[in-house]
Each structure stands twice: as C-alpha cells, then as structure tokens.
Amino acid sequence: MTDIKVIAHTHWDKEWYFTDNRSMVFSLIDFDEIIDYLSNHDDISTFLLDGQTSIIEDYLRYRPENKDQLKELISKGKIITGPWYTQSDTLVISGESLIRNLQIGMKQATDLGGYQSIGYLPDSFGMSEQMPLLYNQMGLKYAFFRRGIADHLIKDREFNWISSSGESVKAFNLYHYGIMAYPPNEDDGSYIEELVDKLKKFGNRKPYILFNGEDQKPIRKNIAKIIQNSDYDIEIDSLENSLDEVFANANDLADYTGEFTFGQHSRTHKSIFSTRSDLKIKHNRLERYLSEFIEPLSAISYKLGLRYEKELIEECFKLMLLNSAHDSIGMCNSDKTNNFIENRYDKVNDISSNLADSIMRRIGDGVSLSPFNFQVYNTLPYEREEYIKCDILTPFKDFIIKRDGKDIAFELINIEEDQTNLAKSIKEIGVNNKISSDLNLYDKIYRAKILIKDRIIPMGYQTYEIKNSSKNQLKDLFSYDKFIENEFYKIHVNDNGQIIIDGDSNINKIYLEDNADEGDSYDYSSVDKDLFISEGKVLDIKVKKSDMYQNISYKLIRKVPYDLKNRQSRILDNELISYLSITLYKSKKYIELNYKTNNNVIEHRDRVVVDTKIKTTSSIADQQFGTIVRETDYSKYKNWLKEGWDEKPRGIEPMISFAALDSNQTVCGVSDGVREYEILDNNKIAFTMFRSVPYLGKANLNDRPGRASGVHEIQMGHALLDTEIETTLYICDIENDYFKMHDFSKKVLNKAISYQAGEIYDNTDHFVISKNYNCPSNYSLLEVDGAIFSSLKQATNDNDLILRLYNPYRDKDINFKTNIDKLDFVKADETSKDQANNFIRPCGIKTIKIKNQ
User: Fold this and answer.
1) Which domain holds residue 112?
2) Which SS3 state, helix, strand or coil, does residue 605 take?
3) What total of structural domains would you count in the chain?
4) Which of 67, 131, 165, 722 could make an SS bond with 844 (beta carbons 3.0 to 4.6 A apart)?
5) Is 495 exposed, middle or buried (0-12, 13-18, 19+ CB in 10 A)?
6) Highest taxon of the source (predicted)?
7) Selected residue with higher pLDDT from 175 and 310
C-alpha cells in the first residue's frame, strides 16, 4: 500500500469578497495553464478541478476552442470534475435543489468525459444528516467533507455514515483543508513528516491524503519534484483512487447517523443562516416556488397537451444553484457580490412568474365556460379544504360565485371600478384570432378581492364562474372589539405589543425580541451584559371580523440603541417600527402572524419568540426529506474555549420550514422566511427575522475567537439599513406527529392560487395569445395518500413525469397509495431501478416515473 497520496487541486469559489466576473476572468488564466500543463506533462498524473462543473461551464463559454482538449483530459482522468454543478451548502438548501445540483453536474460532467463518484464538499459550512441518502440515490460511493465534525460525535475520520433510512456511504473527513497548500520549494522530507504526524493525531489511516492547492490557486507545477525527497512511498493520484485504497481494507469502520454542525476543528458559522435576511427570504421562497408550484403546474399543463418548458425551468434552477454555493447562500460576501446574487433571484422570479402566468392563462383561455370565470390551482397531490384569496375582474358589482352549478361561500373584501382593461381589450377584438366576442356586452368592469372557502381537487385545478346577483356582498368588517377568536384560539394584544393567547392552548404568548449582535456576516456573536428589548408601544390597532376570518393588526414602536456602543451604554436613541398582523381562520387550528420591520439601526438581531407551557430538552425541525431531533442543552460544552474549539457550540439551528418543541402535545412554527431557530429556556422557540451587522469579517468575537473569517472590512449591505424584512409565521398546537407537522407546513406554504384568464386580458398590456385548444373545466392529474409530496416534474432525459415522495418519520415505515397506473420505481438519478413497492423507509424517498400513455 502507498503511504501517502497527494491530491493536486484547486478550490475555486465562484464569488465571495470578489464578484463572479472577477473570478471568471482569473479562472481563464489559471484553467488555460492547467489544461496546457497537463496536456504536455505526465509528472502530475491527475488534477482535481474542484468537483463542480459550473466553473467549467463558465470557462468553455469563453474558450469553446478548448472543449475537445478538455474532454480528452477528463476522459483520461487527468482532470477530475463533478459530481456537483456548484459547491452547495447542505443545511438550508432543499432536498430537491441538492438533487438537481447533482443531476445537472453529473450530466455536464458525463458529457465531458466523466465525474468522480464522491460527494465532494470540502468547504461547505456543515453537513446535513441526509447526505448519505442523497449520495446513495445518485449512485455515489463516498462522502468527503471538512467542516462540522467533533470528537463527541465520532472520533474516527473514516467511517460509515448512515442515514435514518438505512442508506450508507463511506465518509472521509478532511483535516484542515489545504494541509499541503504551501509546501516549500526545497524540502528535505521534514515538511511532509510534519504533515503526516498531524494526520496520525487527527485519526486518519493509510494512505494519508495530502491536498496540494487552495482557494483560487494555480497548478503547482513543481509538486512532483517537491515530494521526491520524502522517505515515504508517495504519489500523486486522484481522490477516488485514494479513497478506494483507504477503504479497501477498512473492515473496522465505526457507524454514525446524524448531522455535522459543530465548530470544534473548523468553523461552521452556525448562525450564517440569517445573514442578509432580505436575500435569504428571496432564496427560500423562490426555491419552494420552483419545485412545489412551477414544476407541478408545468406537469399539469403538459398532460393537457401544452409544452413542458424544460429549458426555462433548468435555467431557473441553475441560477438558484449558483446562489446555493456555500459562500453565495451564506451571503458572507462583498456588497457588490450580493448585488449580483440578488439580480439572479430577480431573474428567476421574473422568468418563473411569467412562465406561471403563461401556463395558467392558456389553461384558463381553453376552458369554455362563461366569459368571466377563473381557476384555482392546487399543486399538492391531496384534496384539501382551503381559504383562497382571489383577485378577479367582474362585469357585475353584485355577484355570486358558482362551481359546477353550486354556490360557493366567499367574502368580498374590496371592489372598485377598473375600466382600463375593458377599453384596451375592446379595441383589440379579433387580434386573438377569435371571430366573436362578448366584451361589447359590458359597459363597466370591476376589480374585486374575495376570499373563497372550498375543497380543492388534488394536483390540478377547478373552475369558478362569476354570476350576476341582486345581493350586495360587501360588508363592514371593522370591529370595536379588542380581541379575535375562532374555535381554537382567543387572542388579544397587550399595551406593550405582546400577543397573548387565551384558551386551551400550549402557547402563552408571542413577542418580538431585539438584542445585541457583535458579529459579522459569518456569525452572530453574543455580548456581555446584553440588553434585550421585548416590549414597545402599540399604535393604530385595528380589528376586522367576518364569517370566515378575524384579524388584528397594529404598529409596534420599540425604543432601541442605534449601535453596540449605545446598547452597552443603555442609550435608547432610535425607534424600531414593526407592523404586525394576526389572522385566525374559521375551523383552522393555527395562528397566521405577518411581521414587517424597516430596519434603521445596526449591530442587533430581531426575533419572534413563541413562549409555551411546554418544557423539553430537545427540538424538532424538518430537514431534506425528513425530520431531525436536536438537543437543546449546550451547557455541556461550556469549556469549549479552554478545549481550543474554533467556534462556540450554540443552539442556533437550521431548518427548512418548521421547528417545534419535542413533547407529546407540542407547539410548531412554520416560517416562509429565514431558516433559523433557537430553543430558549427549554420552552420557547425563537425564529430569527434578521441580523444587522456592518462587517463582512471581524476578528476576536466572543463566540468565535481569533482571526476574521473572510475579509476584515465594513460592508454596509449586511446592516440592512432602510431595508424592509417581511415574514409570515404559522404557529399551531399540534400532536408530536412528524407526518402532521410536514403536512401542515406543506399546506400553509403552498396555498392554492387563483388565476383569471379570458378576453378581458387580451390587450397589449398583457400580451395577446391565440385561442386554439380546449381544456376541461376541472382537472386532477394524480392523487397520493400516506406520503409527503416533494416534487412533480418532467424527467431529465425523456418526457415521462417524475413524482417524488418522502417519509417524514424517523422510526417507522410508511405505505402510500396513488391512483397512477403506468409507473416505474427509480432512484433520484432517474435511471437506476428502485424496489417496486409503495413502501418508504424512515426519512427516505420514493421516486416514481410516470410513463407517458
């Protein structure tokens, strides 16, 4: 066996304190050199080009003439790439995004000659517990990572990493990324001896793996000469070959199930989840919108005979995946870089929302009912009873709503005249290639906002007609009461702004809490003698009550310090103004809380705290395709600083959409905003709204001693001054049933959406499209019972549809039912066969290929 393997590589951050354009320009220089050297020399047998294909995609955009030369090097194994498209974060990126990242990366790498069978993430800030599941589903042999490991989790650095579903991958933990980054040009062997000693102490076994290279570094052309003087049997090799040797005779590997989020041996930045909350919120909403609305909607339209816009959707995903890279989603970047990141979000939003508009408009135009009708879309594969907010145009000031001939209950929220669309559309009659028109029958058009309550068919849409009525539906909803209530909750707001929950609930109250943050764009950091501000002055309180819902809204003014210096001096020299709106719906057992704050101070953090009657020592949160239970007692790590940890262990945790207390009857909170929570005093859930710090990097923090992470400079974009943060929380009493928690989260975050098409929109403002097809009034593509929905999309390599479901339980299997006839069971790679049954293991997934009929 070889003693030492040297991995020649570069780790190429696409953006950071520099922009992606700067990174791309300099990559052209370095990649030219790499390709030229490897094509003409054999002393470096193989070179790892960071395991992500997006940097090669950029390179070939400007060096297309080098594609054949690059393909030859990759095919021969002289350049190693993949399997990722970008070097993703794994803790706050959805499971669907991680799968798409691998699918795109592996497809691109295959087209270029192949990819390494390694989940290669050497610099991501911690590892999700579900990575073994994903790697197995995508056919990868090994997991390779650096950050997050701690001695109390597992002492070995090579081990079997096992998901809750039982899927296992051999994992290798890298010691101090770039351990051989800067070898001296002349070495008598002592330099390599010193490195090997470190790896022995760290717990690695032979062959010892040394990495030569680092962030944005060129190929070290004399590395073969440098290692010649070593007494060890040493060679340059690929990482995959090296891991093959490491694990070939490793029959005594320890087993581990869990995540890696501790900063003992390297920083994991376990509060970066709330940096630049404004951008994080955009990411989280768009990520969910793509996989849980746009793709299912596209699948529905495809089955109705429309084109599935696979290329447009992939472009959106690729832009999102660029923003999923560990530095990009961390937003621990320069302001200029974050501006580019935001531009990608805006582009994704623009493409996806217009794609949705075009699909729903064509379906609506194809429904042959009355001229003024609208559809309600449900992109979850279950029937559900919902309240649906609808914005409609109607020729009737007084009207009723019918579906399939039956009256549908609704509340008229607002109505006003809107003549613009009518005038423009009458002018353009015939442009849509329709011979006759009903628009001349109307002399007025009204825009109405309504709230419908109805049962909605699964994975499809249903059509509603607007009919004339003699009954005025508009009601005065304003109330002089000081409370709101439904069958489950009674709520009032104290004079200090705290929300009090009365009745049979485990929730005591909900309040905002502002406190100091001495950190930077990487980490929240606590201060000595902090000042917590959880009360304020209530103004403009309003109560609305209808047959369907009740709402209370108010403005909350809190006196706060402008900065850390003033907080420590207890100088409350600024007003932080928040707008809160609380809604209860009839027969719905949850509280909808909308939060808006325009930030005007720095070096602080704002959170919504849910105070409960429950005492617990652990929390529950969702993760990719499953649920995780975490300890809440971090006092056992109180000696972290003496023990030389890189970062303070803290209970600030990631989630995908919800967090709850671990108790038989519990309280759960779902957020459409930042994916970060913390359990306080064993009975409170604190959901982070935002952090405001004016530093990209900062040295010697209380919670992270030593050097600054990244660049030590002021970047005011991280302070979020004059930035409005808006988040909606859905808080409920619920059984400690993981399925019910995931189901609740899916439904409140994927509300049914209404859309109105028709001739009234056929004018230049909205584009004019021909009417040359028919669609049914109601349509349901499929139905699922007994599993949680993840995605429905067109397959990567053909036109079949792919349905993915998962089991949220940690300790029991589930069996699901579906009304699909022709199907195959495949793995997430969409080609490998899976067990042909309706059985899903704990925190496991099932991918179903729906054959075209």
Assistant:
1) 4-257
2) strand
3) 5
4) 165
5) exposed
6) Bacteria
7) 310
